[in-house]
């Protein structure tokens, strides 16, 4: 049998991760987290709102410029500028700089970044961006901003470790106090159409860094214009009085990328892009759903949207541009590795697919390949014939100004899958719009084709260059659960039958068998020691969320040939010592089959946090009993013959634990093992109980009395022979009774007893 210390150690590792993370998240004052990778210490900042303010340094030229070239496609333009003394802007935050370590980014592989996102009005196009850096707080090689629609995100990487940053801050602050500016931004933009009202350019950002590289490091958030975002007025193009240029009808075919991502959900959990880690399930039986998301915002902001925007100045033309032969569709493909399968594919090789975020569209088909590994999905317009002019096309495109998602569920692991092994699901998608446009008797054919490309900041952690999602399932931590099988005739004291075989009164005796689970040294003791070790965090147990909790035990009792159940009513099986648990009345979980009964019991109520779990486990008695009544000897059984009843027990505790936004699955598996000092007298290997019954004792036949003879009278004070015989017979009866009692005493001698209820 495995040692209890080894079992406890397995559970303690998981608990240490949870409680240490919770303690760090809940600490109200400055704390230190040890970086196990570097051996250094990084100071966790005091909680509170930390912020860097850049907004006041931004401005625009606040005017519109009309192009002298009347045929120019860029008649309106402007410039956004900022000259920033970065150290001065960070002065409210500077006294909170940690004294040691590095400002690690989320991956804990490099220095953190200051991210700042500028968002321009929908009818504005950015022509150029220029950022120059003389600050020593950040690295000089500033990369081009990442564009997402009309938003541009700049990333300024922190320079060196915190001691160096502190020294550089002091040097830069001295220069800035003398009037120097250490970061300069210049962005040139234009618009192809005027607007009837003024619009704004907005900006905000963040600096998130981790205090170390270990699991126990602390994340610190610093806002950049977070509480009061930057907002400056763009040029009022209408007041510029620039002339409008007629927009030509679209013609020909244009191709472009459509950013996309694959997200996953395990056992009904929230969808996860799994960008920085593999999406883990808590068991091999877990079921995934995979969602392919097309960021159709690209359609609105991209080439197709630009065509529609050309007519913004004269929207009355929309209905004058007729459309015909309209086709608008998206195709998606999802391919599983060999170790995953679709569980919901029907006999026609179809699988259900749910569409979201696409009003006016529907799933036209969803089919599975012959090998059962690939699903092909086609999405199309519900009523393509209703798109008869540009006005209806614009309305359709406007409705797609969000993500289009299609979800396929019922994905699980095959028998070949292994725990803690990564399996990658791959996807592909694209779309096409085509139509004929007619205006003033002139018709042009045009089309737009889109190919899905993985969005970089949502990329899979294992295969980032593909539209992919990598999954696995955790390996359950195996543990032994000390167990025993007790029994007795119904109404009598149950015994463990360790020293000798249990002897029933007769073949007609009916026994109640009790499966014992000694949870004190495994479940209760472990949780108690864990809570004592991390007692300082006990007030925050509610913050540790638990979902998909599976906590239960399954026991079996198998009778040998020669024994049987007198009653197979599962409602008569009882559970002792576990007020927070109940025996399942589902015949698929608790049932009799032949000479074997299977009993499953699990938590009564739904558990959503660690506090609820802790309170439930504390209510458990040191030993739990599952009582199965109605066990008897069958006809044809033999007296003084050993009959060994065999039991098994197993348990599982798995869940998904969430703390500070991070979800971690875990699983434990218990296997019942016979407690050595309670082992069966005749069959000590295994959870067994051996029983026999006494032979039936038939009453002794008394001889018929002889006729009385004429004999001399007996002298006074002496008994007759007949009474002596009778007395002798009485003595023999007492002898047999004494022998029976003595046998009973020997039979029960040395047995451990517990009250059978």
Automatic annotation (TrEMBL):
Q: Which domain of life is it from?
A: Bacteria
The UniProt annotation puts the region (Disordered) at 693-724
Protein name (record):
LPXTG-domain-containing protein cell wall anchor domain
Comp. bias regions, Basic and acidic residues: 693-709
Q: Which residues cross the membrane?
A: 730-750
Signal sequence, start to end: 1-25
Quick check: keyword Transmembrane in the entry?
A: yes
